[in-house]
Amino acid sequence: MHSMQHRSKKSAPSPSIQSCLLHVSKALAENRIEAGMQEASILLQHVTAMTPTDMYCNLQQSLSASEAAHLKRLLQRRLCHEPLQYIIGSSTFYGLEFHVDHRVLIPRPETELLVDIVLALGTDILAHDGHVHIADVGTGSGAIAITVATHLAGTRVVAVDASRGALAVAAINRKKHSASRQVDLVQGDLLAPFQRTFDIVVANLPYIDTETIEELSPEVRCFEPRMALDGGADGLRHVGRLLRHAETALIRGGWLLLELGAGQSTSVLQMMADAGCWLDIDARCDLQGIERVVMGRYKEG
What is the DSSP-derived secondary structure letter of residue 61? Predict the structure, then answer.
């Protein structure tokens, strides 16, 4: 205690948590970064390893010199518009925490709709057959595959991605959530290697058209992996190929679910209708009213 008092006389006093919150939120607001106080709080929690409750009960507590220096470095990264999730190495999806870094897309809240539908379908299949085999195509961080496996006992999920780096991140998350027995990681091109294997194929493929990418926020445009965003001239470059792959990878009566961007559902519904092998074709809206998920069941017999 005496040594701490002696040291404080020699050096400038360390900033309190409260003063850091105000400083960081102001700096973010001045750089047109929204939700500045919320992000400031998350950065302070990360630096101090405190829970939100602990932090707000100890607002007058001083940061250590190393914590203050760490906070300064993280703030500089955020002021350069690096996404907060990459800075802290974590993103919440469907109530679970996932490791994320520059090798993978940050999971989006709208993708939770896809999981809702998969869980509903999977529950029905489990009740009827006692098992369900799912493919998550373009798995990225593994958020969809691992969430489904976590919520649906008796499920086997093959998580496929073309990117070796993405699969390395998915492996971290698979271990984090103790899902190794249920989730297999496969590097490959969509569903090319599989024949009549899956009850459900779910895919959140790159669906932003190439030109639009340049209009996105710097957080997305400059930091998230381009190959996980770019869906070609119309955003649907990969969808047509996946439809063809799904015809051979799904069992008869198996379901295909696709996450899409705003305004794309009409084209994809038409593609499925034209193929002549899909039943119960439907589109589901997210909370913003966007037809976010298109689904269909592969024709029996």
Answer: P
Residues 232 and 179: beta-carbon distance below 8 Å: no
Q: What are phi and psi of 29, to 5 degrees?
A: -60, -40
Given a contact cutoff of 8 angstroms between Cβ atoms, the answer to whether 191 and 249 are in contact is yes
Report which of residues 194 and 135 the model is more confident about: 135
Ordered by where they begin, the domains of the chain are: 2-80 (1.10.8.10), 104-298 (3.40.50.150)
**Is this structure's pTM higher than 0.85?**
yes
Taking CB atoms within 8 Å and a gap of at least 24, the contacts of 216-219 are 217/81, 218/81, 219/81, 219/82, 219/83
Number of separate helices (H) and strands (E) present in the chain: 13, 9
Residue range 70-105, pLDDT digits in tens = 999 999 999 999 999 999 999 999 999 999 999 999
CA-closest candidate to residue 136, choices 125, 128, 147: 147
CB atoms within 10 A of CB 287: 10
Strand partners, 58: none
Q: Where are the beta strands (DSSP E) in 3-161?
A: 91-93, 96-98, 132-137, 155-161
Contact yes or no for 169/104 (Cβ under 8 A): yes
Closest CA to 99 of 42, 146, 41, 66: 146
- The H-or-E segment that residue 67 falls in is helix 65-79
pLDDT range class, residue 196, cuts 50, 70, 90: confident
Kind of pairing, strands 291-298 and 198-203?
A: unpaired
The pLDDT tens digits of the residues spanning 148-166 come to 999 999 899 999 999 999 9
